[in-house]
Amino acid sequence: MSVLAVEDLHVGFELDDGSEVHAVRGVSLGVERGARLGLVGESGCGKTTTLLALMGLLPANAWVSGRVLVDGQELLASGDASARPLRWTEIAMVPQGAMNALNPVRTIGRQIAEPMLVHGTQSKRAAEARTRELLALVGIPPERAGRYPHEFSGGMRQRVTIAMALACEPKVLLADEPTTALDVMVQAQVLALLVRLCDELSLALLLVTHDLPVVAHVCGSAAVMYAGTLAEVGPVDTLYHDPGHPYTRRLFEATPELRGGRPLASIPGVPPPLDRPHVGCPFQPRCDRRFEPCPVITPALLQLDPQHAAACHLNDPAMT
To answer: Considering only CA atoms, which of 251, 250, 241, 257 is closest in space to residue 308?
Structure first.
């Protein structure tokens, strides 16, 4: 059973001029305890918005529909009233950009302890002891709890945000591009830490990234988003060797290989704007395999096997 279950999630934003941006359109996915799912796609496809919706942290001009179940508990049922008790205790987030996520005038120890004190999961003395344990868990000497964010490197600050996310022992961890702006060696250390924590603590991880090799290294499965929708979901090996959607294939073709076995091929064009309805397949203007139904009929997410689904007319015998 999935510890995180997302069913038909829609997110939109009402703009000052009366228009609306429909940023997430019918996303459904699940993550089991201890599993690691990558969420990939180009910038602006709705990945971060999806994570903010799962945390109940959307701005005031946003609307959301669908269901989000965390260990069987409804997160969206009553707005912030239902999201707040689950946030950090059942589902937590490692934000993008650790320096911007940390308060520069508060010690890291105080910031890690704050979720425990706010939710009442620990007394003040117990929270201080738990903070030291968490720092040791992520590889930071506990005696540095009294230091400020500017006294740490980028990689160490990212470890602090991970410790903060684990403070209330959540079951689901959302990581929004946790290695942004870090050098390659530090990226590898942070990713190895996330993998180890998931294995040791049986955390369900939903990892947002642009980096397909990172997904292949860290995650067993991946969900490919395009223009606010799911284009394909399946095991990483299947998506690499036998993709069911042209967009997935083009993403891998645009990713450098370590041994340089093939030339890179960019994807022409740009994703469609999200402030208007989509007619047909949203990827078809950029697709090298489009045919008659693509501009007029929106493809459904079809199951190709029990673990693999793709939203492409090429997989539908009725269309081909």
So the answer is: 241
For 214-253, b/e burial (b = at least 16 CB within 10 A) is: bbbebbebbbbbbbbbbbbbbbbebbbeebbbbbbbbbbe
What does the angle CA 309 – CA 314 – CA 319 come to, to the nearest 5 degrees? 115
Pick from 136, 79, 85, 90: nearest CA to 112: 136
Q: Return the SS3 of 46.
A: coil
Instruction: Determine the straight-line distance between the first and last CA of the chain, rounded to whole angstroms.
Output: 35
Single-letter amino acid, residue 138: V
Structure tokens at 179: 């290695």
Amino acid at position 215, single letter: V
Look up residue 122 and give its two tokens: 């620990």
Q: Which residues, at least 6 apart from 72, have a Cβ–Cβ distance to it below 8 Å?
A: none
Q: Which helix (H) or strand (E) holds 129?
A: helix 124-137
Query: 186 and 163 in contact (C-beta within 8 Å)?
Result: no
Check residue 96 and give its pLDDT. 82
- Condensed to tens digits (0 to 9), the pLDDT of residues 110-140 reads 999 999 999 999 999 999 999 999 999 999 9
With DSSP H G I counted as helix, E B as strand and the rest as coil, what are the percentages for the chain, rounded to 5?
Answer: 35, 25, 40
* Rounded CA separation 198/240 (Å): 24
Kindly write down the DSSP assignment for every residue of 265-319, as one continuous string.
-PPPS-PPPSSS---S-TTGGG-TT--TTTTTSPPP-EEEETTEEE--GGG-TTT
CA 11 to chain centre: 15
145: DSSP letter: G
Per-residue pLDDT tens for 195-213? 999 999 999 999 999 888 8
- DSSP, res 242: S
- Which SS3 state, helix, strand or coil, does residue 171 take? coil
Residue 302 has pLDDT above 70, yes or no: yes
Provide the pLDDT for residue 264. 81
Q: Average the pLDDT over each of 49-58, 87-96, 177-186 and give the range with the smallest value.
A: 177-186
